[in-house]
Amino acid sequence: MSAAAPRRIGRAPAIRALLLQFLAFPLMLATVWLLVRAGMPPSLLGVTLIQGTWAALLSWRAGLASWWRAIQFLFPPALLLARQGADALALPPAAFLAVFLFLLLLYWSTFRTQVPYYPSGRRVWDAVAAQLPAGRPLRIVDIGSGLGGLVLDLARRRPDCEVGGIELAPLPWLASSLRARLAGSRARFLRGDYENLNFGNFDVVFAYLSPAAMDALWRKAAAEMRPGSVLISYEFTIAGREPEQRLVTGDSRKILYIWHF
Ligand SMILES: C[S@@+](CC[C@H](N)C(=O)[O-])C[C@H]1O[C@@H](n2cnc3c(N)ncnc32)[C@H](O)[C@@H]1O
């Protein structure tokens, strides 16, 4: 881990949101104390709503994106309701641990990268395949390859090309590797951070990330990609960098953005 990594993690909105919940706790206690003294003791649900209100206010003051206010407000009552629901259904505590571990392995560093798992679909794969120049072998990588659908599809269509994916989250990476093995595919899946990959080794870099990742992606692509190579981004463009091509994929009018280097 680089020296900048802890700072980057500390700046992640999810970590800041958690710290603000802690900061809201004494404010919630003081509010409850005042209400008790005034002869209006709140219910347990009321206490969680007070906690959520303080956390939402602090998030607004701290300049977190607007949707965090809703998340911060709803988080404490949601915890209480989940707890009460589990009691009513007599769920064992291990059920919570199992769900937590599953989500952890699926989403992994999403709190830092702000790029959750969400698959593209066949129409996108068709559109990407149609963009690949025919008649010459290419090195193609899907950065953040998820369950590997696009990579496996391209490897099937273009046996002349080297197709691979890199994925940070353990569960999607494991699933994609197993799928490749079971299908006897030549596609290769690497577990890791695409920030450590040299884009200069590829003719085509495909990305389906999130708006939060696009500026840094452009800086990396501009520094590393070779003349003649292509960056393709599904759904998310890069502010101030007009793509040479925009293609409507037919998939709910979402667009494939293409930059030629
Ligand atoms: C929106 S999904 C796209 C999945 C796949 N490319 C597809 O088209 O179906 C984005 C994926 O990128 C992964 N990811 C996010 N940041 C990453 C990083 N820095 N390095 C590698 N993978 C990353 C996430 O774990 C997630 O699985």
Give a brief description.
The chain has 261 residues and is α/β, with parallel strands linked by helices. The chain has 10 helices and 7 strands.
Describe this structure in words.
Helix 2 packs across helix 3 and helix 3 (44-62) runs antiparallel to helix 4 (66-89). This protein is 53% helix and 13% strand. It has helices at 4-11, 13-37, 44-62, 66-89, 93-107, 110-113, 122-131, 149-157, 170-183, 214-224, and strands spanning 139-143, 162-167, 188-191, 204-207, 230-234, 245-248, 255-260. The chain has a seven-stranded mixed sheet, covered by helices on one side. Helix 10 links the parallel strand 4 (204-207) and strand 5. S-adenosylmethionine is lined by residues 113, 115, 117-120, 142, 144-146, 149-150, 166-169, 172, 193-195, 208-209. S-adenosylmethionine (SAM) binds next to helix 8 and strand 2.
